Amino acid sequence: MRNSEGLSTYSAMQGDMYIGDALNDRVYVYVDKGLWGGAEVAGYIWNLLVAGSYIKLGFFKPPFGLRTDDHQSYSASAGPVGPRSSDAGLEIGYNSEWLTLSFAHQNGAPGAIFDSDTLRTVSARAMLFLRHILVGGSFYKKQDKNYYGMSFGFAALNLYPWADAVMVTSPYDSTYTLDLTAFVYWKPWRGIYPFYAYDLTQEYLRGTDMTEVGERQRLGMRFIPTPFVELYGAYGLIRHKGGDRYEDNEATLALHFYY
């Protein structure tokens, strides 16, 4: 997830507790609680009209970007809300082995259960899985901004590259922002994933040159010795931040437990 400077941060992934229960063949409820704030509480009703269709009610993040499951509170996309910014609303959709469709209508007050105005948000997402290829698109609309997301990835020769781009526009001014994230994973052995990552945020004023807001390159590795333990390490170089050019280094080390 991106921070206020437009650069990716993985701290939001840590400290996540997820509890889900299938009440019967069609009803599923879950609670996702962050140890340092934020929560999701929602329920699904499956197979409404056709097999794979669903309706979801509760307090959850809008469907946007590369987010693979409910218990992952972060998104790989530079999305419209933060990692702990769930919103009350309704979602309908369809899931199958090759296609995912989602549409949501929510309060427009991320982080709050109730809303004092009528400025609702609308979001939609489609993901297509074709053998070793992923192609997807997302849309999120609120009063002053529109978010358009595109995702692409594939798997070949033990390489797993993917890219995710988000464009943010506003009907009230002449600027728009482009966020780009690109990853390349390599799998030389089971459970070992070296990677290279590139993040870029650019702001454009129509009719003028672009302004770079943030840029980062990272080298790292994910080590997954068991299905429930992950060790993550990365070293990054930030070249742009807030429009000023400078060079700085950073290191990240994280231990994740999945249960």
SS class: mainly beta
Low-confidence stretches: 1-13
Classify the helix fraction into a percent range: under 10%
Over all CA atoms, what is the radius of gyration? Answer: 19 Å
The number of strands is 15
Q: What is the H level of CATH, i.e. the homologous superfamily?
A: Porin
Order of helices and strands: EEEEEEEEEEEEEEE
Structural domains: how many: 1
CATH architecture: Beta Barrel
Largest sheet: 15 strands, antiparallel
- CATH hierarchy, class: Mainly Beta
- CATH topology name, in short, is Porin
Distance between the termini: 22 Å
Q: Give the rounded overall mean pLDDT.
A: 79
**β-sheet strand percentage:** over 45%
Widest sheet, order of strands: 1-2-3-4-5-6-7-8-9-10-11-12-13-14-15
> Count of DSSP helices?
0
Shape: globular
